[in-house]
Amino acid sequence: MFNFNDIRFANPELLWLFILVPVLIAWYVWKNKSIKSEFTVSTLQGFEGLKPSVKVYLRHLLFVLRTLAIIFLIIALARPQARSSWKDIHSEGIDIVIAMDISGSMLAQDFKPNRIEASKKIAMEFIDDRPNDRIGLVIFSGESFTQCPLTSDHAVIKNLFTGIKTGMINDGTAIGMGLTNAVNRIKDSQAKSKVVILLTDGVNNQGSIAPLTAADIAKAFGIRVYTIGIGTHGKALSPVARYPDGSYEYDYVDVDVDEPTLEQIADMTGGKYFRATGNEKLKQIYQEIDKLEKTKFEEKNFTNKEEKFFNYALIGGIAFLLELLLRNTIFRSLT
Q: Using CA atoms in the order 146, 148, 152, 154, what is the torsion angle rounded to 10 degrees?
């Protein structure tokens, strides 16, 4: 009844009347200290051993009741109202599978600190911006496997992202296999929109399924594929040999991204092809995909106001009447 969390006042300016309360308290204290009654008697012998009655100790109860009456009547005059509101939300979710190339060339340092780490970081930022969508993760190099099926638990998929590194599977670039695996993970989805984001820095040279065959499969299931070719133009400092201790020898090599095939995959499926040549460009690409694939919402707001002044007026009135009753009965001789 006295929970003010959901209470709003129709006349909040009347709450300034609360300034009167400390003024009344100060006046009452001053009055009790300054007013003294005197009478003359011949001896105090008859008053020895007398103790003040309970009524004397309770005389301040009258002032407390009057103060409470004023407080509750001020609240009632300000017209407290309970506002109940709710939302009827309908969302049209999007299912997204990110298919990421993790071949050895993804260690090239034309991105900072390298292609694979930059891709992971920016992809996780993209996931943070899609709180209402289910997202899955497929990785590929010479073969492909599912790192995370479609999930709405973004903490799980981000945790799995951090564990991705080159060398997890046989090296190479099996674009067709990576796309097919991603399509297989999303084809049975009931979402209104089904999307694959395919990121690679090379040319298909592994796998039993050609990239365009995989694109045909995606098209058949109504899956849009956004393709991202990652790598600067010209040469990039890339790993050319791996030492027994796991470290790499680097040298500048030509960047070879199969842009025609990636463009054709995007065109066939109703998606779009992007070329990422650096960290900032890759981030912009994910932001553009985010704008192109927005989750649709329908939201209806309902608000209901309920007057709550009656309870406060009732308590204030009871306190006032009780003060009058006590003043004219039990405490009459003290007033």
A: -140
